[in-house]
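Progress note, project year one: complex with zinc ion.
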Amino acid sequence: MLLELFGVAVLALPIPPSSSVVVIHAGAVIDGTSAAVRRDQAIVVRGNRIESIGPWTPSAVPSGARVVDLSSATVTPGWIDAHTHLMLDPAGGDYDTQLLKQTNEFRAARATALARRMLDQGFTTVRDVETEGAGYADVGLKQAVEAGYVVGPRMYVSTRAISSTGGYEPNGYSPERDIPAGAQLVDGPVEARKAAREQLAYGADWIKVYMNHRSWVDAKGRLVSQPTLTLDELKAVVDEAHGWGRKVACHAYNGIGMRRALDGGCDSIEHGLDLSDEDVAQMAKQGTWLCPTMMPYYYEWAPENTPAGAKDRKRMEVHMPSMRKALKAGVKIVFGTDAGSFSWDEPLAKEFAYMVEFGMTPMAVIQSATSRSAEMLGAAGELGVLAPGAYADVVAVAGDPLADVKVLEKVVFVMKDGKIYKEPAGR
Ligand SMILES: [Zn+2]
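Model obtained:
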């Protein structure tokens, strides 16, 4: 609304949102950025932002504030899962069944339940990295969450994803049949740029590209991956996305596809199963993020004496040295589960334990799911941190996750945007 004030048109600001005050009495606080744990703290939340954090005293409670007693719990910022597929759920059928037999409407409706499940497990933000044939359903889901129709995490979405002809699922159908692909397939830099433009125009916050598709174990026992987009195709996508102030996530395992991903200026490498010394050096130099996604590689291996089974085992075998190499080189690592490629019945927090097993400290792992991911999303200081001015996204677990990382599977409290969605029983 425009008002005339002293002859000058000024914009009348809307009345600020509810200024209700909640004080969280926290037994221990891990704030997402600091290595220190603070004991017995009061986190004052006003509206949807954190107002202050300081030592707990009853006098720290403003009059009229509601107090949440988490004095025997560990409180962290809300977590960020930087790699999911909310439009997929293997519990509902294999990939081709979901793509070919389920409507986008069914998949989006199902995703509303999965989004709620994510929030209950402590994930207040998600980067969902492609809908797998469900078009722009992620944009719609994000809008429904923002409008309050659906309860779920804050969403960063990447819509359809981009690969090349022959570079994505489903495979093996007759060429006479017109089978839809799980990603937008392009050939040549012109088509690649056009696909990026379309996706950005229809609401993509990130662009997702596939730089590898098929992979297998060769006669020498090495993991080999088929490259997809060329360097010129990727550069067209990255150039377009960066012009919009957006970033590009690249699915890449190793080899030629990985080289092109890094030379082409990818912002994040997804999976990075088999990184060479050269790859990690380039990632550290360019500041490329790594989202290693351990969970899918532990899930349902094919029988041992089959090519698919050999591939499954090889992927696992190379993943740990790859991750250790990246850690040693100082590559920035973010938390991502790849949920949707495995069943949502698995607790998402299992990924924390895998990251610890692969060489990270529990504190580093918590930061990878909070401040580090927030930085990658361009939301440092607002998400993934407990500090004055940040969004009031707060999670609590029963116990000490630094002593036992599995405690992160026991979420007792979830607040998103200042609103409580889960709290200890007995209230
Ligand atoms: Zn994925």
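The mean pLDDT is 93.
The chain has eleven helices and 21 strands.
No further modelling is planned for this target in the current period.
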